[in-house]
Amino acid sequence: MTQPNSVTLNVNGKALTANAAAIDTLLTVLRDQFLLTGAKRGCNQGVCGACTVLADGRPVRSCLSLAFDCDDRRIDTIEGLNDRPIMQALQRAFIAGGAFQCGFCTPAMLVASFALLQSNPHPSEAEIRRALSGNYCRCTGYKKIVEAVFDAAARLPADTAA
Amino acid sequence: MPSSPSLFRPRTLDEALDILAGTPDARPISGGASLVAMMNAGLVEPAALVSLTRIPELSGIRRTADGGIMVGAATRHSAIAADRIFDGTAAVLAHAASQIAGTAVRNMGTIGGAVAHADPGLDFPPALFAVDAHVQLAVKSGRRALPIRDFFVDWYTTALEPGEIVIGFEIPKPKAGAGFYLKHARVAGDFAVVSIALSLADDGEVRVAVGGCGPAPLGSTQADQMLSSGLSAETLRRAGELLTALANPVDDVRGTAEYRKLLIPRMLTRAAREITSARKAVA
Is the pTM of this model over 0.80? Predict the structure, then answer.
C-alpha cells in the first residue's frame, strides 16, 4: 500500500532509479540524485519558476511535484532538450540578444519558452509575457528575454518539428 | 528529524476514503501546488499523504443529463480554462481558471485542492458562487452535497469533516449570457487583492461575488437582485455600496482593508462594463 523506498522515473527518455522518501520532490530527486542541476532550487515554494521542467510535455513546478507521483509521466529537463530545433533556436537567440545576466533563471526560461513555441510557434509579445509570467528574473532582464523568444520564433522554419 | 510520512496511492475513491478514515492526520494530496509548498516551508508535517492523482473518477469534466456540468475535484486548472463546455453564464469559471498563478501551476493545481485549501485570495471560490455550484463531499460512511455558499466557514476553514474530501462540483445548467472574472493582483500570477466574479444571463439575472475581502467569498442575494433589475449606473452604485458595507477585509501584505474596500465598487463597475461589451461582441 505504501511506497517502496525507491522510485523509477522516465527522465529525458531514460529510466532512472533513485532512493526517495514519500515527501521528496521531483526537484530534489533530479538535482541531488540524478545530478541534473539545470532545474534550480530558488524559492522552493512554486513562485519563482526556476525549477520548471516538462511533465508529459507541459511545464510544471518540479519543487511542488512529489517524485513518486511522477512515476507514470515523461519528464523532460533542460539537459534533455538540447538537440531539439526549437531549443537550439532559443539558445542561439538568448546568446545573440544577451538575454541573461546571472543565468540562474535561464534554464527554466528556456524550458517555459520551449513549451510555448511548441504549442504556439508564432506568439505575440503579450502571449510570450503571459507564458513567462511565472518565471522570475531578479536581474530584471525581461525585455531582452521576451525579445529573444520573439526572435527565436521568427527564425524557426514554418515546418519545424519540436 | 521527524520520520518521513508514508505515502498512500489508492486507485479507487473507496480505497482512498478507507485510508483517510483509518489514518489520523493523513492529508489528501493531488496537484501539490499548495500542500507541497507548505511542507517545503515547514508549515505542515503530515503524518501521512494520500495521493488522489490515480483515481480516474475524480478527474474530468462532463455534461450531466439535465444540462449541468460536473467537474471532478482532481481536474486541473488548465483543463478547466481550456474547456468550451463553460459557456454562457458558466464562462466565469473558465475565465477565473485562466487567471490562476502561471502556466506551470495551472498544469498542476486542481480545483478540489484549491477550494479545500480555502485561501481567501483564490480565484475559484468567487467564480463558483457566481455559478451557484454545489460542492460534493465524500467520507467513508457516505456522501453529501453542499451549496458552495455553505462550504467556507472561516479563515482557511471549511465544512469538511475529518476523513472527508471534496470529490467534485456540480454546476447547474448554464444560461445563455456571459461570465466575467476580474482580478486585481499586484503582479501577474499573484493571489488576488480583490476579485469580482460576475455572471449575466440574457434574461437579466445577475450573480456577483467578491474575492479577497474576508474569510470566504462575499455574495449577497440583495446585491444580485439589485443588479438583476438592470446593470445601470444607479444599480451598480447601490450594489457596490452594499457589498463594500458587507465586506470584512483585513490588512495584509497585498493591501490594506481600506484599499480593498475602495476597490470593490470600482471593480464591480469595470466588470459590469466588460461583461456587457463581451455580450455585445457575441450577439
Answer: yes
Q: What is the CATH number of domain A85-155?
A: 1.10.150.120
Q: CATH number of the domain that B236 lies in? A: 3.30.390.50
Angle value at C-alpha B53, between A50 and B51, nearest 5 degrees: 90
Distance from CA of B99 to the nearest CA of A (A): 10
Domain boundaries, chain A: 6-80, 85-155
Mean pLDDT by 10 residues, chain B (283 residues): 79 98 93 94 94 96 98 98 97 97 95 95 97 98 98 96 97 97 91 97 97 96 97 97 96 95 98 88 63
Find residues 22-81 of chain A whose CB sits inside 8 Å of chain B.
22-23, 25, 44-46, 49, 52, 55, 58-61, 63-66, 68-69, 72
Cβ contacts (< 8 Å) between B107 and chain A: which residues? 55, 58-60
Whether A112 has its CB under 8 Å from any CB of chain B: the answer is yes
For A146, the enclosing helix (H) or strand (E) is helix A142-155
Task: Judge: B189–A112 Cβ closer than 8 Å, yes or no.
Answer: no
Grid coordinates given for A70: 511522477
**Number of Cβ atoms within 10 Å of the Cβ of B126:** 30
> Do residue B164 and residue B81 come from a single domain?
yes
- DSSP bridge pairs for B139: B142
B6: phi then psi, degrees, rounded to nearest 5: -85, 155
Query: What is the fold of A6-80?
Result: Ubiquitin-like (UB roll) (3.10.20)
Within 13 Å and on the Cβ side, how many CA atoms surround B143?
10
> Both B71 and B39 in a single domain?
no
In terms of residue numbers, what domain contains B11? Answer: 6-47
Sort out which chain A residues have CB atoms less than 8 A from B37's CB and list them.
45-46, 64
SS3 for B255-267 is: ECHHHHHHHHHHH
Please check whether residue B88 is in contact with residue B176, taking contact to mean a CB–CB distance below 8 angstroms. Answer: yes
A69: chain B residues, CB-CB within 8 Å: 9, 32, 51, 53
